[in-house]
Amino acid sequence: MRFNTLFILILIFTAGTRTSAQTWVVPDEQKAVVAPFKFTPDMQKQGEQIYLKNCQACHGLMGKDNWARLTPPPGDLSREKAQIQRDGEIFYRITTGKTPMPEFRNILSEEDRWWVVAYLRTFNPKYVQPNPVAKAAFTGRIVTLAMQYNDQMKKIVVTASEQLKDGQKGPAAGVEVVLFVKRYFGKMQVGDIRTTNAAGLALFEFPADLPGNKDGNVALTAMVNDPKGIMKTTPADAAFGIGVPTEKPGLTETRAWWSHRGQAPVWILLTYTLSVVIVWGFILYIVYSILQIRKLSKG
Ligand code: HEC
After folding, report:
1. I want to staple 39 with a disulfide (CB 3.0 to 4.6 A). Which of 94, 118, 176, 226 is the partner?
2. Do 113 and 90 meet the contact criterion of CB atoms below 8 Å apart?
3. Cis peptide bond prior to 72, omega within 30° of 0
4. Greatest CA span in the chain, whole angstroms?
5. pLDDT band at 11 (very low <50, low <70, confident <90, very high)
6. 167-198, pLDDT tens digit by residue?
C-alpha cells in the first residue's frame, strides 16, 4: 500500500519535472525580428479581439492573473516575465506554440499575430516600439506547375515554370515533382519523384492497371517536393481518362459506417439503440428506487 503511493508520487514528480525541464528557446535571429509596421490604436483594438478569441481561455484576462491552471502555467502576459521579452520573442512564441499552447502559424495571419503583440504591449507603460522593418521580399524560387497527358508517349507531362528576376517566366529546371492520384481518403503517390530537366519538364509513366471512375477518369495532383519550404509553389490539378473504368458505389451509397445514418450497418444501429435503452433504463430504475425510498420513509 505504502509502496504504491510512493510509486504514484514518483510518477507525478518525474512527469512534472519532465514538462518543466523542457525550455522554450527562441533562436537569436528570431528574437531580433521586429514588426513590419508601426502599432496603431486601431491595431491594438483588433489585437484585443484576437486575444479574447484565441488566448484568453488559457492566459485569462490581461492583468487579472486568472490564467487556466495548466502545466506549465500560461501566466498573465501583462506581467514582467512576458513583457521583458523582445517583440520578436513574443511573436515567435505565438507562431510556434509549445504544448499545451497551440501553434498559431496557420490559425492567425502574420498581421494578426503582430496585432496581438501590439495589444499585449498596451499593458506595459515602459514599452517603446522599435523602428519597424519591412519584411524583405521573397527571394526564393516561385514555381508554378502545369500538367498534360501526352497520348503519343502515353506519359503525363508536368511543366514547371518559374518567375525570373526580370519579371518574366521561364522553365524551372531541377525542381523535384511528385505525382499523386486523388483517392477518397487522401492522396496516393504514383511512381517516384522526378526532377525537371532544363526545359522544366518531368515525365511520369502511368500504371496501366490503375482504377479510375466509371468513365476511366483519374484525378491527379502534381506538387513540388520542397521539404525545406524554401520555394513558393503552385501545384497542378487535372483529370485524364487514363484509368481502368471501374463501377464503384459512392461512399454514401452502400451500408458502411462512414456512410450517413440511413445507411448505417444494422449491428451499429442495434448496438447503439441497445446502449441507449440500457442507460435510460438504469436512470429510470434509480429514479424509481428513490421514489420508493421516499414513500417508505414517509410511511
Ligand atoms: C491551450 C492554452 C493556450 C492558449 C490557447 C494560448 N496559450 Fe500561450 N501559453 C500557454 C502555456 C501553457 C504557456 C507556458 C508554456 C511554457 O512556459 O512552457 C504559454 C506561454 C505563452 C507565452 C510565453 C509567456 C512567457 O512568460 O514566456 C506567450 C507570449 C504566449 N503564451 C502568448 C499567447 C498568445 C498571444 C495566445 C493567443 C494568440 C496564446 N498564448 C494562446 C497556453 C496557451
Report:
1. 118
2. no
3. yes
4. 98
5. low
6. 789 999 999 999 999 887 778 898 899 999 99
pLDDT of residue 216: 87
Q: How confident is the model at residue 254 (pLDDT cuts 50, 70, 90)?
A: confident
Atom of ligand 1 nearest to the CA of 20: 18
Best of 49, 52, 55 for a ligand 1 pocket test (most atoms within 8 Å of beta carbon): 55
pLDDT at residue 88, as a whole number: 96
CA of 125 to the centre of ligand 1 (A): 21
Q: Which of 59, 89, 110 has most ligand 1 atoms within 8 Å of CB, for mutation?
A: 59
- To 5 degrees, how large is the angle CA 194–CA 197–CA 202? 40
For position 12, what pLDDT does the model report? 54
- Is residue 257's pLDDT more than 80? no
Mutate to test the pocket of ligand 1, among 51, 58, 66, 103 (most ligand atoms within 8 A of CB): 58
Lowest mean pLDDT among 18-22, 206-210, 222-226: 18-22
Given a contact cutoff of 8 angstroms between Cβ atoms, the answer to whether 30 and 88 are in contact is yes
Q: Could you give the CA distance from residue 293 to residue 145 in angstroms, rounded to a whole number?
A: 76
Are the C-beta atoms of residues 51 and 119 closer than 8 Å to each other? yes
Task: Write out residues with Cβ below 6 Å of ligand 1.
Answer: 24, 54-55, 57-59, 70, 72, 74-75, 77, 81-82, 90, 93-94, 98, 100-102, 104, 116
∠ CA 132-134-138 to the nearest 5 degrees? 155
Least Cα distance to 178 among 241, 227, 110, 111 occurs for 227
Q: Which three three-digit cell numbers place residue 165?
A: 528576376
